[in-house]
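Slide 14.
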Amino acid sequence: MRLRPLTGPLAASLLATVTLTACSSGGNAAETSGQQGGSSSDVRAVEHTMGSTEVPVEPQRVVVLDSPHLDTALALGVTPVGSVQSDVAEGLPGYLGDRTEGIEVVGTIEEPDLEAIAALEPDLILSSQVRHEAIYEQLGDIAPTVFTEYEEGWEAIAGTTADALGRADEGEELLADYRDRAGEVGEAVGASDLRAAVVRFLPDETRVYGPDTFSGSVLTDVGFGLPDLEYDEYSMAYLSAEEITQADADILFATTYGPAEETTRGSVSALWGGLSAVQRGCQFDVEDSEWMLGIGPIGAGIVLDDIQATLGDGACR
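Slide 15: predicted structure.
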């Protein structure tokens, strides 16, 4: 998914909304939110992509505005009071199961509802620079706000999120456990001798995910090599129907964004069946919502589960 900053009329509208909210509350919410959990001595500085922000030592009312922060918070046992949902799906990600019970939806990733966020009286807001840089100051007027950057990679995002939540040590343990398990899965399926690819079919394009994407990085952590393609700044390669053979590998994982008939999957069918992975029975369909949007420790664990389940019998070695 290409990530877009919030700009233009939408940003202006949100600015007006939060200005009215701040005025009606009689002051700058960020200046007082640090005291919701106690005295001013109960705050500490967290370094992040936008600078340094003083946050409560133990945040109690957290709002998350992007999927990696929701995944990581829940993995750490923190249930946010509010979260945005996907622009194309109702509700919070299904792969998170009942962990999301009680979380109030405060708009979409593309259009956060600032009034709803302010009404929850958060003491910490978490999001991504590429998503919401245009409203960073407005969010900071509601509560201390910490941003991450996708270019840092999902593990770094998880680390900063854990730090902001006052659970840095637990976050390091989660990531260490993930790396250990990735190594174990890789050894079990013989990943070091294999190449694997993740292909995503969308309505207007077909993408292959490179080493700096979430799913691509999990494959490399397991030990797979990836197709040697020309990846763009988002670590993605875009293939036409005629170029789909360039995605061939020992193992193919494929996801579909929406109904298959509305994507490019049909357009590649003529060549898809001739790929060596398909002919060997080593092409596997996996859930788009997990492999593409499950950016965090919980989602990474599901990807490892899928790799182990599909390749554990050694048939694709």
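Speaker note: Residues 1-40 have pLDDT under 50 and may be disordered.
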